Amino acid sequence: MASTSGKRCTLSIEQKLRILEALKSKTADDVAKQFNIGYSTVKKIRQNEEEIRKIVMNNGNLSRKRKRESPNEEIGEALIVWFHQMRAQNATINGPLMMEKAKQLAITLEHQDFEPSYGWLERLKSRHNIKFIKISDEQAAADHAGAEYWINNVLPGVIEGYDLNDAFNADETGLFYKAAPSGTLAVSGTHPTGGKTPKARLTVLLLCNSTGTEKKAYVIGKFKNPRCFKKARPPLPYYSSANAWMTNWIWSDILQNFDQVLGNRKILLFADNASCHKINETLKNIKIIFMPPNTTSLIQPLDQGIIRTVKVHYRTQVMRKMLQAVNYGTSIINYAKSIDILKALHMLKRSWFLVSPTTIQNCFRKADFLVNDNTSDLDRMQEVLDVSEFGEAIQEEDFKAFVDCDKEAECFGNLTDGEICDSVKLNRQGKIDLEEEDEEEVGIVDKPMPGVSHKDVLMHLSMVRKYLEENFTDYNSYYDVEDMIEKNALINRTQRKITDFFK
């Protein structure tokens, strides 16, 4: 007879599966006796057979016992659907990325008060048997055979007849532009962010040729008219989309503009086969070559160190400015919050400028786009992280983590119907939110600076010259700036009568 003990028996999914298998050839009473459980328990397991087998089919954790319903269950279900969708694209997903996505889904599902915790995420992962693997393991899972075949048998025929200057690569990367180091900095004993990386993000499209002589950068944000752009011209081409992602419309617009600039020059543009890179327009001068799926980590030049070098330079600038701010009494957190999109674009443009042609050539060599020679050690071609200028303010490992904090940030994805509609409206309408950040991201935001007159800028330029005279001996960069400003001042006064200058 089945057990009638008052002690509650909690069975795992695996045990319930064995019970279901036993029920195929035995009665419920016999199964209850075999497993020493109550008849009602066996009956309930039989009633829930579909749900139990669904958990197994969805790669659920077989050792899990009780299913606890949560008021936020639908958020978890939506997150799992998104997770499997992204993994189907071979995207690498980590914990912080899943938590950030959970927040977004919660808002869509009208659970505005939901705040995911690591405990919540771990329980969700356990229920669905999700385990993260290291990036190196992820790359090892890439299609090495497909990459090797493409490099040896496809690429030579594609590039035949093209000059090295006419072979380009384009790729996106996510940039958490407000991020600060998450470790402890030796600056007045402060903890910059308490381990939390600000998720205000941009998508950056980098484009360069194999010789490193031509470089372009394009930036995508969430908002079409960030208020920091008022009375300012962004230093890089700026686009907007609902998620700050690359879209077919943005990609098409960038390539059509680039195609016109080329005149009659014919080039190759290598890109990954993301759905947002597929366009219907015919390009006169650009031939797009899509690399095989699951091979870009192995054969895409920008992924061999170019993108990371840009981020090394960007984070170096952030560190310098952050330490200066701390010296003048600003907290690290407040400095990070004060970085607006305009400031980020200036630092990004400078960072891209600092990437040398040699670095770019070496990355194309590492991807086997160029023939290897003895001019460089490809195993050590990436620019070395140099944190010596920061003294003891940050350790090398902490700076590496800082550089890589947005390495897995997504740059495109499968948009929902609502997101597609939002994207269309964003590109076609002028009535949009002029705020730069979402409410939860707003911290210290600089007020738009008033316009600067030529008289004021020339006066301050003289102060800069005085500073240089006291500290440096090389004035060439100063002369270039002075010449540019003075020429612009004259151009803006050409419509005035020459006699006005003598009144």
Helix/sheet category: alpha/beta
CATH architecture of the largest domain: 2-Layer Sandwich
- Helix and strand element order: HHHHHHHHHEEEEHEEHHHHHHHHH
Quaternary state of the chains: single chain
- Let me know the average pLDDT: 77
Shape: globular
Poorly predicted segments: 1-6, 57-61, 184-195, 373-382, 427-445, 495-499
Count the DSSP helices.
19
C-alpha termini separation = 115 Å
Task: Tell me the strand order in the biggest sheet.
Answer: 4-3-2-1-5-6
CATH topology of the largest domain: Nucleotidyltransferase, domain 5
- Domain count: the total is 3
> Helix coverage percent of residues?
40-55%
> How much of the polypeptide forms β-strand, as a percent range?
5-15%
The number of strands is: 6
If you compute it from the alpha carbons, what radius of gyration comes out, rounded to the nearest whole angstrom?
A: 29 Å
**Largest sheet data:** 6 strands, mixed
- The CATH class assignment of the largest domain is Alpha Beta
